[in-house]
Amino acid sequence: MKLWEVGPMFRYERPQKGRYRQFWQLDFESIGSDSPMVDLEVIMTAIELFSRLGMSNLEVILNSVGCPKCRPVYRNALMDFLRPRLGELCDTCQNRFDRNPLRILDCKDEKCKEITEGAPAIFESLCEECSEHFKAVTSGLDSLGVVYHIDKRLVRGLDYYTKTAFEVQSGDLGAQNAVCGGGRYDNLSEAIGGPHVPGVGFAAGLDRIVLTMEQQGCSFGKEPSPSVYVVCIDEQALASAVDVLYRLRREGISADMDYMGRGMKAQIKSAVNGGSLVACILGGDEVARGVVMVKDLEKSQQEEVSLDQVVSRVAQILR
Ligand SMILES: [Zn+2]
Ligand SMILES: [Zn+2]
After folding, report:
1. If pLDDT is split at 50, 70 and 90, which confidence band does 18 have?
2. What is the CATH number of the domain that holds 248?
3. Which residue in 76, 106, 111, 303 has the most C-beta neighbors within 10 A?
4. What's the gap in Å between 134 CA and the centre of ligand 2?
5. Minimum-distance ligand to the CA of 74?
């Protein structure tokens, strides 16, 4: 099963800089298969999404967090490595040492970073199954020409995560943002009382995506604009102008008009600047004759059309 969702999420802990208590998250999940080709597909989906948004220098950061068979072996190796310098780690990491030593690898504290520099990497302790899985993912990325690098510091704090862990980063060196984080969670279903169901996916914060796009000057697309602008020249035409406006809207044609009593020139300018393609112009004179001036703003051509024909003529021009 392949799913995606987007919606507001709420963070319990105090938000850090650039993060909000209510934030918007986008998720992609593929549930039911343990094939490494699904990991590849999820990573490619992330890359495709961010490249279509126009982000530059996309790079995959990759690691494996192993499985319940091989992770304890690594955990012990890491603890043996850290134990002699335990007293030099930051307070948080000293607390983590027994509970969650893997998390010490992603501590941002300079001293902790320096101490873990030479730490063993988990991919040296992977069991055969995890190792094969990891190789299949990396060779898939190789053959698709995706830039990635393996980072032993990319770890997860929870036991239900297995095998592939990844992040996608974007931006020039020094100004890189992680735009999504993901990986495999084959033991999640069981951890919450369900049957064994493998799964892999990623989550991305929309706030972070928008921030990154702004930093990189990406396009957010064209502002939506009404197709038709109804230009009302004088007070006598107001009722008919409103009538034309709703005839168009009821046929599913997006239309807008001026409600501020501005002059014709200002209204035409609004229509053009707002991206409208057609202007329907009418004043007392047109109303008296039962006609509307329909102007194709792109071609700068105009013609008189009877009131009953306005909608079909406008639809023709827009087609
Ligand atoms: Zn394993
Ligand atoms: Zn630390």
Report:
1. low
2. 3.40.50.800
3. 106
4. 28
5. 1
